[in-house]
Each structure stands twice: as structure tokens, then as C-alpha cells.
Specification:
The structure holds two protein chains of two kinds. Chain A is an alpha+beta fold. Helix content of chain A is 46%, strand content 13%. In chain A, helix 4 packs antiparallel against helix 5, helix 10 packs across helix 11 and helix 10 runs antiparallel to helix 12. The chains are: A alpha+beta, B alpha+beta. At the A-B interface, helix 8, helix 9, helix 10 and helix 12 of A face helix 7, strand 10, helix 8, helix 9 and helix 11 of B. Flavin-adenine dinucleotide (FAD) binds next to strand 1, strand 3 and helix 12 of chain A.
């Protein structure tokens, strides 16, 4: 970069940084410091208090929760560099991004790519303001890994479709306002008979039944559709294009699940430091239980090489343009390591690490137990580990029938 | 693959080209058949030096190119792919010791000779069967070094030794008071125990207290680069084989059990590459070297171990034959795994560095 250009960029970045700081000073209330992202959480209803609401409206109003999305649809219209500045400055003062959820992570980017102008104007701005919650109507009782086997059917009734069928494992279905779904419009072709539609969750004929998970919460539901009317303007793309659009959305989902940053946050404190609180240490500060110590070091070394891999994937895709082939391993490796870590945390804490409820347990202890259980899902959803292995073997390694 | 500069790409392509054309595994077979204790082809090493590979980490003022460890690692990786037998890694490690700890005079005297290939050098630290730099008995009095070093790499070709004594690192030239006992290891490369009996020694005065540790970290990342090349080669060969071999009327590559095993190994190999490249880059930047080098070698050990075993298993009977190359990688793999820190040593070191 010529020096002149470089310094221009720097000046404008500095100016933007100042703007973000001023915004935070004016709008971010101290009492929310270090608390979580209510809208982005999938395992609880959105009981916002007025302070949280005000914070959401402040961020959403500027489009800063979705900083790189186009301004005309309510996004921030900012560059990636500016988005990083927002992330960085927010983190510095312990502020969370109140705009999140499936609308931000998966549906929005997909609609921006495939939706028509009217659909974008209708659906994207409420996502940017954090007003509408979306859920994902993909899986069915007989369509899991083999998703294209889905049977929920939409009959063409002229100005609308009439939908009948059942979805399942619908995360946040009981709290969602709308559902992006893939449904069958043609039984004669497994893939080309699928269409992508937007369904109002309060439309007559939609019924949700929460399912309790092993972690004790009920973050997902069975969703039933009985003669549900969906206006034709809620078809995204063309009839029969649903598989293509639906798969694109899954790519966004996987990127989010394996996103190095999020996982890095999940990993939190060093296991060694935690172990020193629960287990005996010698005079030199080392853990006395050498077998446990070895397991911790083993996990943390592998965790480090995973983080380095996530970084490398980003650098390579920047340098080459397009997705680097190593990103295919991130989901399976990251989710496995996170599970291994949760298991090790239980071994470190002993019975104290298996608490279900009660004041004798610390909040972190209880949260980690629920996290351990909920974490088992990460190798199942978003394309299970086995499905990832199939993809790596066939697409990356070229292990096919015809060589 | 790390994002490389243009020079680095050229260097890597040149090394890849040379290794495939001039130094395929059949060249290692010739070295083995020749049965010489030094166990490398001197002409091949001269050619490597001629191409500037020994001088990659050496400053231009001393006859090198000063391209750094990531660049050196690229070359070493390519040579690892074809099991090229040479004292390149040993000499580069020794050069790093002189760079870190040597006086201006020592640098001016030795580095140009190392870069040109005229002098082969090697690091001698261990005194027992395992990596244990804290258990050194070798001592020096009045400029004479006495002690026994075990399993020294490339000892036969070397005429300069960088030797660890209780109070630091010393340079010793082959000659009076230096005697070698050949130790034939499974990789059939050059290894020897060395008895130093009052050998004339010149201290590397610079580099501070951490000199030995810093040099060992450089040894770790360079060995890890060689291991990365080996792991990649075994993986590629195995994948090719699975795509050709037909059983039950189908190529083996279509069996899901094998697909998933290869997907796991591919993920491991991807992690190994990230760790090794980060280790080399850490040495170049000077930040967090101990930690990065420990992670690099630990991941190299873990993954090469797994891939070298699966390389045999997935080839079936043919993998067990001497005629087939994959066994060579297995044997070299274990020697490198044991060098400069086994997996258990490295995990212990990682825990110590992390404060538990
Ligand atoms: C917490 C959670 C939240 C979810 N949220 C949603 C949501 O919001 N919306 C939604 O639509 N869905 C959601 N899902 C569903 C999820 O996408 C499916 O569970 C997933 O696709 C797997 O399908 P399945 O459960 O039917 O398992 P199956 O496909 O029956 O798989 C069972 C086992 O067989 C393995 N398997 C399957 N096929 C193969 C194969 N070809 N080769 C090798 N092994 C194979 C699988 O890996 C798995 O181990 C969620 C799931 C969970 C756990």
C-alpha cells in the first residue's frame, strides 16, 4: 500500500474508533457490563428488561449489530475493518452485541443473497433491530442427516401454498415469530422438488411442542403444520430452488458453529488453572496427579493447534479468495475438543463437577454441567461429525467410486 | 500452508522439484545399501549447499541468505517427504547455536563454512536414552571438555560439534579426545555415542542462561518440519493406494470406515501443519518461542505417530515389506519422535510453561 493511502485509512479508522467509543459512553449502561446476549441465546425466552431493550434499540438503530450488512436494509453498511473495531471496542468495555440469533447467523445472509427486493426490505431491517426471532424448519422425523428426504408438503393454491407436515428439533420454535423452512413442492424429484419458504409461527395451523433435553432445558420443539396458508410472496427464490438455497444457509450455520472466536471464548480459563483450585499441587505449583496433568496438557496442546488452524483458514481464504479447504475440518475438530474439555472438567472437579442444582455449587460449576450435556449436540447438528467425515472424504480427499 | 512470500514460494518449489527428481526415496535406498556410517550422499549435500539451503538461517554477511526458519522449514519439509538423508537439519541447528551464542569471531569463522557445506556440524546434548537437558554431567576445565554424549545425530559426517556441558555450550572440532561409537538405529541414518576425553573446547559465551533451551527449541521446530513432510508423504501415498486397490469389487476408497479414518488423519495433519508453521514463525518473530516450539513438536509427534501406523495398516501386507517405502517412514518417525523431547516430555514441559 502506498504510504499516503495507508495513513488515510488510519486516520479514518481512528475517527471511527472515536465514534464507537463515544457511542458506548453515551449508550452502554454499566449494569449490563459483562452480561450476555439475550436475543442471540437460543435456550431461553426473550424477557427483556427496559435497560436491555434500550441498549438493543441503540445498537440496532445504527445497524451496528449487523455492521457489514447494507445500509438500505438496516445494516451498518460498514467495512470489515470497521466491524472489527466495533467488536474490539465493545469487548473492551464488556458490552455485548444485543443483535443475534438465527436471523443474523444464517437467515439474513442467505436472504440477502437469494431474496427479492421486497423480501429484503420486509425481513432484513427487523433482524438488524433485533425485533424478530427466526427459527429453522429443516429437520423432520425421517429427514435428519438425509435432509433431502423431507416430506412436509406445500400444495399450490393459486395465490398461496397450503402446508401440511411435521418438522422437529426446531430450536427456539416456541419463542420464534417466523420460520424459514424447506418444504416439498414436487414429489417426483428428491432435490429439485424442494422449495424455501417463510412461515409465520402464529399463522393458524402451526403448533409447537417443546422437547426436554438431557440438560434439563427445552430449547427445541416439534413443529406441526396443519393446512397452514403461506402467501406466494413468501417463497424465496424459485419453486424447486430450495435445496440450493437451504444448503447455502447451512454453510453459514457451520461457519458459526466452528467460528474460532466463539469457541475460544467457550474454552475460557486454562484447565490447568482450574485444576489447581480443585486438586493437590506440590511445592513447585505443579499438579501432583501426573496422569491428570498429562491429560490436561494433551488437550490444551491440541486445542492450541486447533486455534492455529482456525487462524490459518482465515488467512488462507483471505490470500486465495474463497473458502480454504482446511475449513472443512474446523467443525468436527472444534466440537470434539470442546466436548473433551467438558469431560475433563468433570474429572478435575469430581462430584463437585456433576451438580444439577443447589447453592452448594458455584454458578460456573452448574453452568459447566449443563454445558457439558448441551455440548453433546454440537457433533450432531449442523451436519454431524460423521456427515462431515463423508464430506471431507468425498469432496476434499476425492474418495469416490469412480476413480 | 502458511501464506508465503514470493521468495518463499520459489524456494519451496525449487526444493520440491529437486527432492522429487534428484532425491526420491530410491536415493535413500542407495545410501542404505552403501552401508557407510555417515549415511548420506556427500555429492547431494554439496548440491544442497550450492543451492543455498544450509545458509537459509545464516546472515548474508556470513555467507547465508537470512531467510529465516519458516523458509528453512519449507525446504526441510520437502526433503522429509522423500526421506532425503542429509546433515542439513543437524548443521542448521548447530548454526543457530553459533548465531545465538557465538562471538563475532566464532560467527565469522564457522558460519561461512557451514553455509558453504564445507563443514558439517551437529548438536550433542543428551547423555542418556531420553531427552533430559537438566541431567548433564559433561564438564569443562581449563578449556578441555570431558563427558559422554549419546545418540548424536549425523555424528559421522560432522567435523564440528556443539556440545552441552554443565555450564553452557561449547564448540569442539573433531580430532584428539573425540571418539565415536556407532549406534545403529532403526532409521539407518547416522547416530553415534561420543566420548569426549579432554577435548579442546571453545565456549559460546553469548545467548544468556536460556541458550541451550533456545537451541533445543530450534531443533524442535526444524525436526517437526521434517516430520511434517514425512506425514504428508505417508498420507498422500496411502490415499493414492486406497483409490487404486480393489477388493470386494470396489476400490477401498469407497469403504466408509476407511473414508472416516482418512478424514480423521486429514484433520490431524491439518492441525500438525498449523502447529509446525506457527513454531517456525515464532522463532522468526522471537515471540513465545518456547511454547510454540513445544506445541509444534508435540503435535508433530502425535500426528506422525498415528499416520505412520495407519500408513502400514491401510496398505495391508504390502505395507509390511521392505520393498515398499512406507516402513522407512515409520522407522524414521520414531527416531525423530524421540529426538529433542518425546510426547510425554513435551506435555510435561507445556504444563510447566503454563504454570501447572
Ligand atoms: C440441540 C439441537 C438443535 C437443533 N436445532 C435444529 C433446528 O433448529 N432446526 C432443524 O431443522 N434441525 C435442528 N436440529 C436437528 C439436526 O440438524 C439433526 O439432529 C441432524 O441433522 C442429525 O439428524 P438426526 O438427528 O435425524 O440423526 P440421524 O441422521 O438419524 O443420525 C444418527 C446417527 O447416524 C449417523 N449417520 C447418519 N447418516 C450417516 C451416514 N451417511 N454415514 C455415517 N453416519 C451417518 C449420524 O452422524 C448420527 O451419528 C437440532 C439438533 C440438535 C441436537
Amino acid at each position: 500500500m502506498p504510504t499516503q493511502l495507508k495513513s488515510d485509512v488510519h486516520t479514518s479508522e481512528d475517527a471511527f474508533r472515536t465514534e464507537v467509543r463515544q457511542f458506548l459512553a453515551t449508550n452502554f449502561p454499566d449494569e449490563l457490563k459483562g452480561t450476555g446476549n439475550m436475543m442471540a441465546g437460543l435456550d431461553g425466552p426473550t424477557d427483556e428488561n427496559p435497560v436491555q431493550k434500550k441498549w438493543r434499540e441503540a445498537v440496532g438503530g445504527r445497524g451496528w449489530g449487523t455492521p457489514t450488512w447494507p445500509k438500505e436494509y438496516g445494516g451498518g453498511g460498514l467495512t470489515k475493518g470497521q466491524a472489527r473495531i466495533i467488536e474490539h471496542e465493545f469487548a473492551k468495555v464488556g458490552a455485548y452485541n444485543p443483535i443475534g440469533g438465527m436471523g443474523v447467523m444464517m437467515f439474513g445472509p442467505t436472504l440477502l443473497e437469494y431474496g427479492d427486493e421486497r423480501q429484503k426490505l420486509e425481513h432484513i431491517p427487523p433482524i438488524c433491530r433485533g425485533e424478530i426471532r427466526w427459527c429453522q424448519g429443516y429437520s423432520e422425523p425421517n429427514a435428519g442427516s438425509d435432509l433431502a428426504n423431507l416430506q412436509t408438503f406445500a400444495v399450490d393454491k393459486g395465490d398461496h401454498y397450503l402446508i401440511n407436515g411435521q418438522k422437529t428439533w426446531t430450536s427456539g420454535g416456541q419463542w420464534a415469530d417466523k420460520c424459514f423452512a424447506i418444504v416439498r413442492t414436487d414429489r417426483s424429484d428428491k432435490h429439485k422438488g424442494i422449495s424455501f419458504m417463510l412461515i409465520d409461527m402464529d399463522a393458524p395451523g402451526v403448533e409447537v411442542r417443546p422437547i426436554t433435553m438431557i440438560s434439563g432445558t427445552s430449547p427445541f420443539c416439534e413443529t406441526f403444520f396443519t393446512d397452514v396458508k403461506v402467501p406466494k410472496e413468501n417463497l424465496v427464490g424459485k419453486e424447486g430452488q430450495g435445496w440450493t438455497i437451504g444448503k447455502r444457509l447451512l454453510q453459514h450455520e457451520r461457519t458459526n458453529i466452528s467460528g474460532g472466536g466463539r469457541l475460544a471464548g467457550m474454552m475460557g480459563q486454562s484447565l490447568g488453572d482450574i485444576a489447581k483450585k480443585y486438586c493437590e499441587t506440590g511445592g513447585d505449583g505443579a499438579l501432583v496427579n501426573k496422569v491428570l496433568r498429562d491429560k490436561i496438557a494433551d488437550l490444551e496442546i491440541r486445542w492450541n493447534s486447533f486455534l492455529l488452524t482456525a487462524l490459518r483458514a482465515v488467512e488462507e481464504s483471505k490470500a486465495q479468495g474463497g473458502v480454504s479447504e482446511i475449513s472443512s475440518v474446523l467443525k468436527k475438530v472444534g466440537t470434539k475438543l470442546a466436548q473433551d474439555r467438558s469431560e475433563l472438567l468433570i474429572e478435575i472437579r469430581g462430584f463437585q463437577g456433576l451438580g444439577w442444582e443447589g447453592d452448594e455449587f458455584g454458578d460456573d460449576e452448574l453452568e459447566d454441567v449443563r454445558g457439558w450435556l448441551f455440548g453433546k449436540a454440537a457433533t450432531i447438528y449442523g451436519g454431524s461429525t460423521e456427515v462431515q467425515n463423508n464430506i471431507i472424504a468425498k469432496r476434499v480427499l476425492g474418495m469416490l467410486d469412480h476413480q | 500452508m502458511a501464506v508465503l512470500s514470493e521468495e518463499q514460494e520459489m524456494l519451496r518449489n525449487m526444493a520440491r522439484d529437486w527432492a522429487t527428481k534428484e532425491s526420491p526415496v530410491s536415493e535413500f535406498r542407495k545410501v542404505r545399501a552403501a552401508g557407510q556410517p555417515q549415511a548420506y550422499n556427500a555429492d547431494a549435500y554439496a548440491a544442497m549447499a550450492e543451492m543455498g539451503w544450509v545458509g537459509i538461517i545464516i546472515p548474508e554477511a556470513h555467507g547465508g541468505s537470512d531467510f529465516g526458519f519458516l523458509s528453512a522449514g519449507l525446504v526441510v519439509e520437502e526433503l522429509g517427504k522423500t526421506l532425503t538423508a542429509s546433515p542439513l537439519v543437524a548443521t542448521t541447528i548447530a548454526a543457530s547455536a553459533i548465531l545465538l551464542g557465538g562471538s563475532d569471531e566464532q560467527k565469522a569463522k564457522w558460519l561461512p563454512r557451514l553455509a558453504s557445506g564445507e563443514t558439517v556440524a551437529t548438536l550433542a546434548v543428551e547423555e542418556g536414552t531420553h531427552c533430559d537437558p537438566s541431567a548433564i554431567e559433561t564438564s569443562v576445565s581449563g578449556g578441555k571438555l570431558t563427558g559422554k554424549k549419546a545418540f548424536v545425530h549425523e555424528a559421522h559426517g560432522a567435523s564440528l560439534f556443539v556440545v552441552a556441558a554443565k555450564d553452557g555450550l561449547y564448540l569442539i572440532e573433531k580430532g584428539d579426545g573425540v571418539s565415536l561409537t556407532t549406534r545403529k538405529l532403526t532409521d539407518q541414518r547416522s547416530h553415534a555415542d561420543i566420548q569426549f576425553a579432554g577435548a579442546s573446547a571453545e565456549k559460546l559465551e553469548g545467548g544468556g542462561d536460556s541458550l541451550l533451551g533456545d537451541v533445543l527449541d530450534r531443533a524442535r521446530v526444524l525436526s517437526a518440519a521434517e516430520m511434517l513432510g514425512m506425514a504428508q508423504a505417508v498420507f498422500d501415498t496411502t490415499l493414492d493406494y486406497l483409490k487404486q486397490r480393489v477388493q470386494f469389487n470396489q476400490v477401498l476408497a469407497t469403504f466408509q470406515a476407511l473414508q472416516h479414518r482418512m478424514a480423521d488423519l486429514f484433520a490431524d495433519l491439518t492441525q500438525m501443519r498449523s502447529a509446525v508453521e506457527a513454531g517456525l514463525q515464532a522463532v522468526d518473530s522471537g515471540f513465545g518461542v518456547a511454547r510454540a516450539a513445544t506445541i509444534a513438536k508435540a503435535e508433530a509427534n502425535r500426528v506422525l505417530h498415528a499416520i505412520s501406523n495407519q500408513g502400514i495398516q491401510l496398505h495391508g501386507g504390502i505395507g509390511m515389506t521392505d520393498e515398499f517405502n512406507v516402513g522407512f517412514y515409520l522407522k524414521r518417525a520414531r527416531v525423530l519422535e524421540a529426538s529433542w523431547g518425546s510426547s510425554s516430555y513435551l506435555k510435561d514441559r507445556f504444563a510447566r510453561l503454563s504454570g501447572y
